[in-house]
Specification:
8-stranded parallel sheet; TIM Barrel; 38% helix; 276 residues; two-stranded antiparallel ribbon
């Protein structure tokens, strides 16, 4: 069980990945993303999650350079966007991301969405980058069980991570069990339900009980489920608050209470039905 912000899970290939990181989706390129990343690193965050599609890789790279923390001590994730999927185009997209980040390697490279008819070729490119040592771990994002089974049927290297929408309204029980069985680390995006956590009575009740905020309750729930999580914020106090989840534990009963909120509700797109 994670006890500190620096605590890590160990991926199937032995690479250590922090349990908690900073997500920068919808964070503007330039000073906004630079300040958020610098603030997070200063507070002890060691994992930063970006993507080509977020258009802020340059700012993330700049903040990392200026943070004064050794590159080896950080865990940087980026993702290949749908329009770039396919073998050659993924390899090109990776070079572009690497140049923008100003890094020599990334720690985790993900296929952003399971684009039909393309994600297997994309995966082959990720396997090549992995074998060449240009990325320390490879994985997928928004893959359902059937996408994973399809990929596992003929991949050479298994995905080490699957980053999906995960929160009390979407507990992904079947997917969680499948990933556990296949040694694929599940990671949550939008863990705070795009801000909605503050409006859920059961979550607010637990926040009062534990003397924590609704966001902290849900992030703790993620961690106790063994799910890596990357809450996004640009506000210094919120970045700090999101990391303050290592000094308490939810009871089994309260974990079950949150599990029971599931309604298979997505705030983001459906991985089986998206058109971008």
């Amino acid at each position: 069980m994670a006890k500190h912000l620096a605590d890590t899970t160990v991926l199937a290939n032995g690479v250590k990945m922090p349990w908690l990181g900073l997500g920068v989706w919808k964070v503007q390129e330039g000073s906004e993303v630079e300040n958020a990343v610098k603030e997070a690193i200063k507070l002890g965050y060691r994992s930063i999650d970006t993507a080509a599609a977020y258009q802020n890789e340059e700012g993330v790279g700049k903040a990392i350079k200026e943070s004064g923390v050794n590159r080896e001590d950080l865990f940087v994730t980026t993702k290949v966007w749908n329009a770039d999927q396919g073998y050659d185009s993924t390899l090109r997209a990776f070079e572009t991301s690497l140049n923008k980040l100003g890094l020599e390697y990334v720690d985790l490279y993900l296929v952003h969405w399971p684009v039909k008819g393309k994600y297997k070729e994309t995966w082959k490119a990720l396997e090549k980058l992995y074998k060449e040592g240009r990325v320390r771990a490879i994985g997928v994002s928004n893959f359902q069980v059937h996408h994973l089974k399809d990929l596992l049927a003929d991949c050479e290297v298994k995905p080490m991570v699957n980053q999906v929408e995960f929160h009390p309204y979407l507990t992904q029980k079947e997917l969680r069990a499948f990933c556990k069985e296949e040694q694929i680390q599940l990671e949550a995006w939008s863990p705070l339900m795009q801000g909605e956590v503050v409006n859920v009575p059961e979550i607010k009740e637990l926040a009062e009980k534990y003397g924590k905020t609704p966001a902290q309750i849900v992030l703790r729930w993620d961690l106790q489920h063994g799910v890596v999580t990357i809450p996004k914020s640009v506000k210094a106090h919120r970045i700090k608050e999101n990391a303050d989840v290592f000094d308490f534990e939810l009871s089994a009963e309260d974990m079950a209470k949150l599990d029971a909120l599931n309604k298979d509700h997505r705030f983001g797109p459906d991985p089986d039905n998206f058109n971008f």
